Amino acid sequence: MIVLSNNDGCAIARSNEARALGIKMGAPWFQIRHLEDSHGLVALSANFALYGDISDRMMSLAAGLGHKQEIYSIDESFVDVSGIRGDITERSRKVRERILQWIGIPCGIGIGPTKTLAKLANHIAKTAERKPGSYPDRHAQVCNLVATSPAELDVLMAATEVGDVWGVGRKIGAQLQEAGVKTVLDLKRLDPAMVKHRWSVVLERTVRELQGTACIGFDDEPAPKQQIACTRSFGRAVLELRELQEAITEFASRASEKLRKQDGHAAQVLLFIRTSPFRVQDQQYSRSMVVPLRRPTADSRAITQAALTGLQAIYQAGFRYAKAGVMLMDLSDASVRQGELALEHEDGGRDPSRLMQALDAVNGRHGRGALHLASAGTEGDQRSWSMKQERRTPG
Fold it and tell me: Do residues 249 and 308 make contact, with C-beta atoms less than 8 angstroms apart?
């Protein structure tokens, strides 16, 4: 089985069986489609709403491990287990079993005194299960480096390539290999001051973390984003201005919703439209524009109006548009008010934030799009520009 990218373009996730067929990451669907008939390949469309829902469920269960949780990505989180009484390894196994039983997906849990060591433990836990013999079986699924002796920890580090360390990218990894630093143990034994001088303070921090000194803080409150974007490729080429207006309205509304979730305001709106560079037979066109807002706001109406104004200025008829997007910039906290004299009241003196709160509440209860701006057009699959998901499983 494989999962396809936006508009069912290429393979972005593969089962072990699909990998065994020789399917590469990013393989175009049209090139491997014949494997459906010859080898029983199953291809499914990406389903981002499902991924978000599953992620929320998993994170709520994983949070039960400790005091605080920092969600690192859609499928990873750090949990503070300091001071938790009892056998933390057994506690972790029970949480893992609960996630598998309640949600239906496996996971790996790594425990360490620093974030880098916890990530290393997680790597060992997953690899020990997937590749028997790579590490001792007792470290499969749950690996607790805190309960591991220094000698055994060195053995585990010596069995792990330096490129598998969190924070060591491909370029730095190649440089370390050339310098004779082949394993995690080699990296741990380097002098942090030398690493800082020869490479960077980031790699120095990684070395200190491997040595047991916590250098990366725990943040259970994600930092607000400095920019918020919503961009999409269309399911088919778009030619009409009306269709672009619908798409831009949808993207601006979603970006505004994200902005309100972090309690922010935006002062500028960037939008862009472009044709597909892969359709060499088509005439190419790409334009963007930044539209300043009179006052920083999170009001979907004001942000969308600015985006549509910009669209009117950059749209050119006769082109087959393949992608568009909206980005909110110059963000600030909603509590910071712009020092401008309000010589007139918008919305007849009513607070626009109350309307946006009501909008978000209704959509949160009845589903995204239950209420939307009229310029977004018809909701659902009837939108001709919507992302193609012909192989999505039923909702």
Answer: yes
